Amino acid sequence: MKRVVYAATVIIVALSIIFFATACQQKTEKTENIETTKLSVRLKWAMLAHVASGELIAKEKGFYKQEGLEVDLRPGGLEFDAIKTVSIGADDIGVTSPDQVILINTKGAHISAFMVIMQKDPVCLIAKKESNILEPKDLIGKKVGVKHGTSVETEYRAMLNNLGINSNLIQEIPAKFDMTPFFTDKVDVWTGYAVNEAILAKLKGFEVNLIKPGDYGVQWYGNMYFTTKKYIKEHPDVLEKFVRATTKGWIYALEQQDEAVDILLKYNPNADPTHQKEILKVLKEYLITDATDKNGFGWMEADKWISIQDVLFEQGLINEKTNIESLYTNQFIHR
Description:
Layout: H1 2-32, E1 37-42, H2 49-60, H3 63-66, E2 69-74, H4 82-87, E3 93-96, H5 98-106, E4 111-116, E5 123-128, E6 143-146, H6 151-163, E7 171-174, H7 180-183, E8 189-193, H8 197-203, E9 208-211, E10 224-228, H9 229-234, H10 236-255, H11 257-267, H12 273-287, H13 290-295, H14 302-314
Parallel strand pairs: 1-2, 1-3, 6-7, 6-8
Antiparallel strand pairs: 3-10, 4-10, 5-8, 5-9
């Protein structure tokens, strides 16, 4: 009888151990299997260092995965405009410039920026050093390649307006993205970006002078993330996670530049690695400022939004001003 009781006790204990072990295993699996949310992000342009380093790092280093996000990064451009794809629901998040956020809202769309990448827009005018074109007044009588219909043109005209320079005194030549007219002296000055075309000119062997609208009172943000107001209302937790992981990605890219370029080349093998490394070297001054040190990466200020909207209104690009507070939110930004 004692043996039966003993045997029964052993069986019960054994079953209890098995049950407990199984329960623990199931609990561990539930803990480890984080619920994944799929997210599509439409970039502003092709995958280049100043366009996508932060997102690519966050994807490749597992920052998104740690937040339970499965992020599909999609190149943007003229044929895949983020404003359009996000507005119609084809993408969840997009990257654009602040003027586009304002313009589309005045046309009845309902989108908001929720994180800025570039605290200072790297728009600049590029001139060869031997031209002695050093400041805006030196543009008078010169041929300037202008990208019509872009924020580059808007900032260029805002700078001239701030300084009282009549654009009729400048020979403006319609320009696209190919810098050949600048390299072959068809134009004296090229409008572009300090983190892209200016570097490309240097790699081609040209010493250049840069004229930055930001140095002449044009306060402008660069690339920023946006989505629909509906998505912000319905999925604040997803955006919180995206901001947290993407911030880690951009900071990592600035600190580990060689690795960031290696990762970039996996997605864009046609990119020039030397060009991309030079981009990352100068990118930090546009991403990290007193505002980010004080309030956190991605923070936006009302005063700058007001300044941008004023420029658009003055240039006749919008007929009426909209409520600034409806254009952006800092609710997901943390120091």
